[in-house]
Structure formats: structure tokens, C-alpha cells
Amino acid sequence: MLLGGVPGVLPAKVLILGGGIVGTEAAKMAAGLGADVTIMDISLKRLRYLDDIMPANVKTQMSNDYNIRSQVKVSDLIIGAVLIPGAKAPYLVTKDMLKTMNPGTVMVDVAVDQGGCIETTVPSTHDHPTYVVDEVIHYTVANMPGAVPRTSTIALTNATLPYAISLAANGWKKACSEDKALRKGLNVVNGKIVYKGVSDAWGLPYFQVEEVLK
Ligand SMILES: NC(=O)c1ccc[n+]([C@@H]2O[C@H](COP(=O)([O-])OP(=O)(O)OC[C@H]3O[C@@H](n4cnc5c(N)ncnc54)[C@H](O)[C@@H]3O)[C@@H](O)[C@H]2O)c1
Fold first, then answer.
1. How far apart, in whole angstroms, are the C-alpha atoms of residue 139 and residue 19?
2. CB–CB of 138/107 below 8 Å?
3. Largest Cα–Cα distance in the chain?
4. Do 121 and 109 contact (CB within 8 A), yes or no?
5. Best of 16, 22, 160 to mutate for ligand 1, by most ligand atoms within 8 A of CB?
6. pLDDT tens, residue by residue, 8-45
7. Among 15, 41, 65, 83, which residue has the most ligand 1 atoms within 8 Å of its CB, making it the best to mutate?
């Protein structure tokens, strides 16, 4: 399908679930091609921001079961890009919804590395990236940046190298004590869970990281 349409043919409808980093970049790409894009998120603050900065062919809608059910029926491309830090992604597209979609609809579950936000997601690889369930095409590669390993690694290390240098120079404890951003990355210290999302997900006690580091 032509994402942008041509004179006399409507552009594709693209639905993006989650308007964070991934969702915003996906919307920029799809909107740039001329598609009719809808971004859903549960954060009204985020939706307000996206509404301000996105071009006119990108609309925003609150993410809830009713809106998702209505949109999946008419979408040509659905991108799952939700994240709940430290927890498994919620299933926003359930198996029963697939039967309501047009045959040939494409679903890309970028949240696959957090368990996926589509019930029928099974992690795939670049060797066999797609599979079909109920005539809906699924793309669920767990390491999508691996398709462009050199440039994606440069992009990642531009952001992470300062942390690696600090860890090497100071040792993990001093580095994490002095740097709030690094400290936020700690999950377990001395056998104690210091990341709220992880303790909630496993139903185990949570400890304040600052207390454990003392
Ligand atoms: N497969 C891959 O190669 C690959 C690559 C990059 C990122 N990811 C994954 O993509 C996902 C998104 O990453 P990100 O960096 O954009 O995260 P992010 O935190 O920037 O954005 C996530 C967004 O999801 C929203 N959200 C939470 N619950 C929601 C719901 N019920 N409905 C709609 N929106 C909801 C949040 O409000 C937030 O705006 C993560 O799971 C991440 O691990 C996968």
C-alpha cells in the first residue's frame, strides 16, 4: 500500500500506540510520507505536546479500549510503542480484535522487547521477521536497530559512553552515588530491589536506592 497515497487515492491510515520516543519517530516518518497518522497515549501532557509539534496529518487520541477497538478496524499500519518502565507492556491489541481488521493490515510491535503490546506477538528475528495471524501481518523483531548496526551503535554510544567512562573511572558505587541518572538505572543492589517497577512486577519488597547505597 502507498503510505502517502497519490492523486485520487487516499493515504494509508497509520495508528501508533504510545507517543514516546519510538512513537514520535514513527509518526514523523509516516507523516513525512503523507500518511494519515493517529497517535494514542494515556498521558494527556504528552498528547498536548505532540499536538503542538506534529504536522496537520498527525492527530492525537486518548488511549483506551474503546478508541483502540474503533481505530484498528480502519488502520492499514499499526505500531505498538508503549512502555511502562520496569513492567511488562500491557496488551492493547487483543486477539479478538484481529478478526475485525482488514486482511493485510500490518502490525509492528516495537514493544516486543518488553513482552509486546499486541496479544499475538511472538518475538521474531531479522532472518524471519514476519508471520501472519488471522490475515494480519505481524512484524515483531526484538532488536530492530540491529538492521543498521553501525549507525545505531554510534547513536547509542553517543548517549551511553559518558556513563561507561564514569563507571570505569569511579567504580559503580561512587559513580551511581554521584549521578542521579546512573542511579536510576540500578535494579538490584546487594540483593535488594531498588527499582519500583521491578519490585511491583515481581511482588517483592522495594528499597530506596539512596538508603541501600549508604
Ligand atoms: N524492538 C526494538 O528493537 C525496540 C527498539 C527501541 C525501543 N523498543 C521498545 O519500544 C517501546 C517504546 O520505547 P520508547 O523509548 O518510545 O518509550 P517511552 O517511555 O519514550 O514512551 C512510551 C510511551 O508509552 C505510553 N504509554 C504507556 N501506557 C500506554 C497505554 N496503555 N496506551 C498508550 N500509550 C501508553 C507512555 O505514556 C509513553 O509516552 C519500549 O517497550 C522499548 O523497549 C524496542
1. 19
2. yes
3. 67
4. yes
5. 22
6. 999 999 999 999 999 999 999 999 999 999 999 999 99
7. 83
